[in-house]
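Researcher: Here's my situation. A collaborator sent me these components and asked whether they could plausibly form a single complex. I don't have experimental data yet, so a predicted model of the whole assembly would be a useful starting point for our discussion.
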Amino acid sequence: MRTFKRFLVNAGLVIALVVAVGLWVRMPWIGAVAIAVALVFWLVLARSGRRTLSVTQVGLSTLGQRLGASSVIVIGIAGVVGVLVALLAMAEGFQSTLQRTGSDDTAIVLRGGSQAELNSVLGRNDVDIISQAAGVARDASGKPIASPEVVVVANLPKKSDASIEANVQIRGVGEQAWALRPNVTLIDGRRFKPGLRELVVGQGAQRQFAGLTVGHQLRLGGQEWTVVGTFVSHDSHDSELWGDVKTVASAYRRGSSVQSVTAKLTSPAAFDTFKAALTSDPRLKVDASTTRTYFAKQSENLTKTLRIVGLVVGIIMAIGAVFGALNTMFAAVATRAREIATLRAIGFRSVPVVVSVMLETLLLAALGGLLGGLVTWLIFNGYTASTLGANFSQVVFQFRVSPGLLWNGLKWALAIGFIGGLFPAVRAARLPVTTALRES
Amino acid sequence: MKYLHLIWAALFRRKTRTILTIVSIVAAFLLFGMLDSVRTAFESGSTSAVGARRLVTSSRYSIIQPLPQALRNRIAAIPGVRKVGYANWFGGVYQDPKNFVFSYAISPEYLDLYPEILLDPAQRKAFDATRTGAVVGRTLAKRYGWKVGDKIPLQSTIFPQKNGDKTWPMDIVGIFDVSKDAANGLDQALFFHWTYFNEANAFGQGTVGWYIEELSDPALADRTANRIDALSANSPNETKTQTEQAFQASFAKQIGNIGLIVVGIMGAVFFTLILLAGNTMAQAVRERTSELAVLKTIGFSSRSVLMMVLAESVLLLLIGGLIGLGVASALGPLVTQGSGGLVNLPSLGAATWGMGVALMVLIGLLVGALPALRGMRLNIVDALAGR
């Protein structure tokens, strides 16, 4: 009967735990702060709270004797948080690089059904119709701010190892491209001259590939091209090489066709007018989207994959860490059995004992979470990596360890600490006083 | 071996502690098994032995640049080339743009170049005889519920037909299996006739994406590749020929350094594990100080005490690690099946098992070393007196 009751209590604990962790995961930071404040008030003001505080102090003062075992909790949780935050930072960095590339007041037009520029073809006539459509902004001289663009992929040797060739994206752009993307600024050299085989290179591409410094010649499409400038844009254009659209198209034998038209809209609200004008035109069979949705969609798959991988790896590691914490805290409770039994014998109730063991575990867990987050931030914040993007070419991006991610990591750490501390705490409270006092 | 029961008894002296530690070890090796199988799957194309017998010829300038189909006969005439086939990337989607299908328009010889593709001879005959015929991998067919005899509308994200329609009707005439050494993902491919593709395609008539050559002797790879590239040197369609292994390796490298990521994660995991298991072993030996002293008193040598503690920690790691790898290898096919082939977690290869066991023994020795030395150096008198 007693074992059955104990079993019921344990099962109840597990269910309560699952619910608590579920709520905790969804909780915004303000809720967590509220809990922390409530806890502090209870500790300082309530009678049982002050008792808890004193029991916790005793526990913490003996922490030095259990340094090795306690470091298992700290390091274990630091590992979980570090790996989790690093993987999520990779996802976030890639996503934010692509998202920054787009805006709500520029639209990109592709042939109907093509999901990436590489798959799309638009004829000369299409370009004219799209540029003249309603909703497209015009510059001071009345010309529409729209750029017909060609995207080709070339093989270039990597800087890190010249024997490895990787794909780089070459974008042929129209004259209005600079007005269209005001965030693209030259930091070295000059712009290419239309009609000449000249290129300006993005800073990201320059760092990844060999031979992209200003003044260098490179061979593309069987012809010699000169690098005349370097630009920086802090988005996915950073991974590209830009040249004149007609010159690039002729070098790659594209005739007068292009792959996309990007147009500046008079306002974000004008997109609907613009899209309606294109879809109602019987001469066209195209898809228009704002560049924000277009680039956000490109990052969707990889970001999702990375998030899932991060979660799966994080959960498995967290399971390992929970059992490590359980082990440590059970041992801690066992070594302090006499002391806890003495407290109980002189009249301490079980709540202060339970809470003090929990507090100790949570403290160690928080320490681990902070350590893991800090190490990841130091190593990975701004770390540059590259992968294959939607156009079969390298997209350079930087890891982004944001405050939100660090907070997320800390939440995981506290959840692990909570689970790892609860059962040992309950065991401590249930310790039969007489046997514990007698045991040596 | 005769001490096994003694070691076993020592290991489970404190059941809770040992079991909790084992669960942590299981988690670590479960992760190791899964990540390492992902890594091997990723690199599978570049390590398969059949891949070394084949060359890939693509445009020198970029992967998207097509090559003239006229090159085929000139490549076939080169000594050392036994067979040559070609293919085009079709970029197919089925019903919804999200349902991506790895689809290729292939020349008749292409299927002969890939002995990994196991297609029933009758179905092969049907494929050769049907202009709009297509053969699909078993996993792909399962995902969309395709059967032999189905007519499917496959859309291309790249190529419209001459009438502007982007839907290409195809008849499924065969479903193939793949042999064990096939590159990952081959059982999710769809192949159809290049001639059908070429006739109906609106743009780029007479062009192919890449050529595949089978070598009569893998040792001739470099020489043959140079000869093939020499055919089109200084033409507008210069080519680059490399072994299929090298081609796939360079492609995998572009997606990212998966190996490095896996090593990074596992480094963090195993570092924690060493600390955790080391702590358990240290506690275990500290607790048993007097027992070890008794063992020494009744005649066990210091060396055998050392060996016994080491064996205990290796055993701890082996129990947890083998369970972990076992779970990983059971979980892989389950995930693959549950996601309908969308996520492909192959079961663990012999290399992963081998490396896993080596790691278990290594970590076991490492975490056991300090406690074992302590046990060996034990002074009987002090230990029995509890000093």
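Model: Some features of this prediction you could bring to your collaborator: The longest helix of chain B spans residues 302-338. The longest strand of chain B covers residues 167-178.
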